[in-house]
């Protein structure tokens, strides 16, 4: 049986941070109302559309979205992944329509489905220099930091939009990951690093060594698999090396923060 997922509230965040500062490898952890939520604005489709329509940069911004023409999982490996450049306004229009098959964008592209995955918002280098990308104006407010409070050094913040229902194929990352839901929900299938061979992980020398040949449906039948659902105002820490597949209903908006396993903040003070 897979181990239970630890849950952490704001009151227990300092304990977890001390654990991380001691360089212990984290376990999958679910957060309720984490402090970095305050940094994000209203993410209803209507609010996103309004924000975009009043920002001259966002109105003409093009983003890289994944396309799925055959249903099933979206894939991140180089062989199966399909990316297209598309206007942000088109993605937001499709998001508001919950990916409806009769939306003009889908009808104009023979029914293809779209998924905005890993769109950069914000980054901090190991030297401490910060980069705020244009897309950050869509979801960030002026309240506090959008990063988990134990971080220092190199880390990145990214946006994920699911106009229609989406599911990703099993894969793992070389960085620790905190996934935060701003609207909708995400159901995360988790498997430990030792399950890679059973999942058909691609060889280490391949172009996409952290991706798997099996589908999310097949991975869910693995005896070590466990499932965690995170809703609005919740987050999930996925440690580096843990395989995961993520399913989202139509209209889901989320962000994630990646950071290298060796990067910790040295002077954290708990915030509630």
Count, helices: 7
For the terminal residues, how far apart are their CA atoms? 34 Å
Helix content bin: 10-25%
Rg, rounded, reads 18 Å
Q: Low-confidence segments, ≥5 residues, pLDDT <50?
A: 266-272
For the secondary structure, the number of strands is: 14
Structural class: alpha+beta
The overall pLDDT average reads: 87
Q: N-to-C SSE series? A: EHEHHEEHHEEHEEEEHEEEE
Q: Largest beta sheet, briefly?
A: 10 strands, mixed
Overall shape? globular
Beta-strand residue percentage: 25-35%
Q: Short description, anyone?
A:
By secondary structure, the protein is of the alpha+beta class. It contains seven helices and 14 strands.
Tell me what the structure shows.
With 272 residues, the chain is an alpha+beta fold. It has seven helices and 14 strands. The chain has helices spanning 13-21, 45-53, 56-60, 88-96, 104-108, 136-139, 216-219; strands spanning 6-8, 29-32, 62-68, 83-87, 113-124, 130-132, 155-162, 166-167, 176-183, 185-191, 226-231, 234-238, 243-248, 252-259. The strands form two sheets. Strands 1, 2, 3, 4, 5, 6, 7, 9, 12 and 14 form a ten-stranded mixed sheet that branches. A hairpin with a 5-residue loop joins strand 5 (113-124) and strand 6.
């Amino acid at each position: 049986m897979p181990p239970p997922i630890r849950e952490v509230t704001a009151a227990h965040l300092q304990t977890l941070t001390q654990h991380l500062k001691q360089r212990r490898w984290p376990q999958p952890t679910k957060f309720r109302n984490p402090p970095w939520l305050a940094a994000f604005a209203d993410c209803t489709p209507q609010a996103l559309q309004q924000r975009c329509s009043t920002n001259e940069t966002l109105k003409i911004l093009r983003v890289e979205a994944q396309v799925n023409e055959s249903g099933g999982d979206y894939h991140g490996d180089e062989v199966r992944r399909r990316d297209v450049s598309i206007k942000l306004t088109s993605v937001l229009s499709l998001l508001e329509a919950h990916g409806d098959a009769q939306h003009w964008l889908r009808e104009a592209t023979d029914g293809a489905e779209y998924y905005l995955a890993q769109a950069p918002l914000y980054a901090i280098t190991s030297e401490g220099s910060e980069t705020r990308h244009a897309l950050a104006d869509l979801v960030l407010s002026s309240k506090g930091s959008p990063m988990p409070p134990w971080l220092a050094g190199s880390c990145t913040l990214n946006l994920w939009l699911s106009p229609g229902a989406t599911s990703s194929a099993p894969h793992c990352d070389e960085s620790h990951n905190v996934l935060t839901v701003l609207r909708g929900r995400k159901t995360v299938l988790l498997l430990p690093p030792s399950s890679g061979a059973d999942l058909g992980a691609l060889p280490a020398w391949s172009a996409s060594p952290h991706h798997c040949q099996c589908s999310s449906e097949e991975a869910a039948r693995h005896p070590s698999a466990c499932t965690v659902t995170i809703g609005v105002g919740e987050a999930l820490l996925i440690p580096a090396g843990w395989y995961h597949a993520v399913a989202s209903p139509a209209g889901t908006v989320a962000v994630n923060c990646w950071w290298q396993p060796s990067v910790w903040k040295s002077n954290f003070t708990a915030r509630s």
